[in-house]
Each structure stands twice: as structure tokens, then as C-alpha cells.
């Protein structure tokens, strides 16, 4: 399903309501809510809204486990840190216990080893099924999502849940959930804002299948659903909406 709005702020409100609903449903069903956050600029509005009373008060934060879909391998106080941004905009403003927060970056360990360690945390909290209740994803203007970048070997990964690797094109290590794990989620929400994403969005949703060039094409939940929240600028090349 795709929802297109002129104003991306409106989509922040849609996403906040959706987050609250997913949290309530999961907590009612099994007593906890496992969510993977995204980084970049797109979720900033959502995180700010979730920290506001009207949304914050509707979530039982004690029962929320916060993971990430991907991370740039930098400390949390680095301006590039996805987790750092989420702390600043959301996590430090809501009563989620620190023990329920699982940043991907850690000191004194390689990204590759950290990916294995992170898999352990996921198995403990999600069980062997590996089903997230909600995964938030942004999409870059090259069609990447999480740290699934065009032409990278991680796109071929079938077994691992989490991968750490050096992303040559950006000269930085990345750590990311793999596509098979993402696709086990109950619900996946993409945020795509801005005219610079219009071409990639068209290719992902309406172009020929070529996931090694447009990795977001790999996202197709096995038993869940994917929702696209897109502003008009990003949607301007789409025909079928
Ligand atoms: O590098 C990344 O970029 C994507 C897209 O970011 P945006 O600024 O275009 O929203 C993001 O989803 C991902 O988490 C991040 O590591």
C-alpha cells in the first residue's frame, strides 16, 4: 500500500499513529513490541511526534525493545550516527528502559563481530522466528534501504540476520539487517520524501526487477505487509497510484 501526501509532516502523523497501533497490538498479543528504527533524515518528524505527550502516553515503553535496521559505524555522539539521532529526537524523551535499547555500534569490536553479537540479541528477544513487529525504513536516492546498497555482497546473503561490512562507495563500515530477516517482519514502513528520490522510487515500484541496482525491490514481507509513506515530490514519476 502506498500513501502519498503533499506535506511530509502529515506522513509523520500517519506513521506515529501506525507506530502506536503496532505497539499496542504487539503488547496485547505477547507483552512486548520489537521495533527496528531507521536513520537518515526521513524519520525525524516521526520521532519528534512520538516523544510528544499525545503519542508518548499511548505506548507502554517498558515493553518496547528498540533495535535498528542499520547503522553507520560511528560512535553515538557522531552526527552521522543513526542511533545518536534517535536518542536525541526520541529515546531520551520517552521512558524506554536503557536495557531495552540495542544500538548496533559498540566500541572495541569489529562491525563483523558485532553483527554476530547483535544476531544473538535479536534471537534472545525475537526468538528463532526472527519476526519484528515493525521495521521502519528510509530509502536513499540510489534505491538503498537499511544498509543494503546497490552492488554490495550483502544483497546475496541468505542465512545471516545481520551483516557488518566496509561500504567502499561511502568509505565507511556499515552494519545492517539482511533482506531475508527484514522480510520476516509483520509490518514494514518505508519513508520516501523529496524530489531527489523520485527516480529511484519509480524504478523500485514500477521499473524492471533489478534488486542489485535498486535494493529496495528486495523488500517483500513473507507474511506481513509493507506500507509506503511518500510525499508528492518523491511520487512525481509514479504512474500507478
Ligand atoms: O544512510 C542511510 O540512509 C537511508 C536514507 O536516509 P534519508 O536521509 O534519505 O532518509 C536511511 O534509511 C538509513 O538508515 C541510513 O543509514
UniProtKB/TrEMBL annotation:
SUPFAM superfamilies according to UniProt: NagB/RpiA/CoA transferase-like
Cross-referenced CDD domains: 6PGL
Keywords: Hydrolase
Stretches assigned to the Glucosamine/galactosamine-6-phosphate isomerase domain: 7-228
Statement: the UniProt record of this protein carries the keyword RNA-binding: no
GO biological process: carbohydrate metabolic process; pentose-phosphate shunt
Catalytic activity: 6-phospho-D-glucono-1,5-lactone + H2O = 6-phospho-D-gluconate + H(+)
InterPro entries the UniProt entry points to: 6-phosphogluconolactonase_DevB, 6PGL, Glc/Gal-6P_isomerase, NagB/RpiA_transferase-like
Gene Ontology terms for molecular function: 6-phosphogluconolactonase activity
Similarity comment text for this entry: Belongs to the glucosamine/galactosamine-6-phosphate isomerase family. 6-phosphogluconolactonase subfamily.
Known function: Hydrolysis of 6-phosphogluconolactone to 6-phosphogluconate.
Name the UniProt record assigns to this protein: 6-phosphogluconolactonase
Organism from which the protein derives: Echinicola strongylocentroti
Gene: pgl
Amino acid at each position: 500500500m502506498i500513501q502519498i501526501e503533499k506535506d511530509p509532516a502529515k506522513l509523520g502523523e500517519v506513521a506515529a499513529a501506525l507506530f502506536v497501533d503496532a505497539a499496542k497490538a504487539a503488547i496485547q498479543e505477547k507483552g512486548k513490541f520489537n521495533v527496528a528504527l531507521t536513520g537518515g533524515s526521513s524519520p525525524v518528524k516521526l520521532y519528534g511526534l512520538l516523544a510528544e505527550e499525545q503519542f508518548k502516553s499511548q505506548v507502554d515503553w517498558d515493553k518496547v525493545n528498540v533495535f535498528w535496521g542499520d547503522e553507520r559505524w560511528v560512535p553515538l555522539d557522531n552526527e552521522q550516527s543513526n542511533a545518536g539521532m534517535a536518542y536525541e529526537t526520541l529515546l531520551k524523551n520517552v521512558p524506554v528502559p536503557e536495557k531495552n535499547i540495542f544500538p548496533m555500534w559498540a566500541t572495541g569490536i569489529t562491525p563483523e563481530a558485532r553483527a554476530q553479537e547483535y544476531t544473538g540479541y535479536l534471537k534472545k528477544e525475537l526468538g528463532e522466528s526472527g519476526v519484528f513487529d515493525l521495521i521502519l525504513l528510509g530509502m536513499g536516492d540510489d534505491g538503498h534501504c537499511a544498509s543494503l546498497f546497490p552492488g554490495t555482497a550483502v544483497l546475496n546473503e541468505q542465512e545471516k540476520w545481520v551483516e557488518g561490512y566496509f561500504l567502499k562507495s561511502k568509505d565507511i563500515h556499515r552494519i545492517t539487517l539482511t533482506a531475508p530477516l527484514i522480510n520476516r517482519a509483520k509490518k514494514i514502513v518505508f519513508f520516501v520524501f523529496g524530489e531527489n528520490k523520485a527516480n529511484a522510487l519509480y524504478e523500485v515500484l514500477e521499473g524492471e526487477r533489478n534488486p542489485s541496482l535498486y535494493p529496495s525491490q528486495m523488500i517483500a514481507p513473507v507474511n506481513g505487509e509493507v506500507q509506503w509513506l511518500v510525499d508528492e515530490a518523491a511520487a512525481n514519476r509514479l504512474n500507478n497510484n
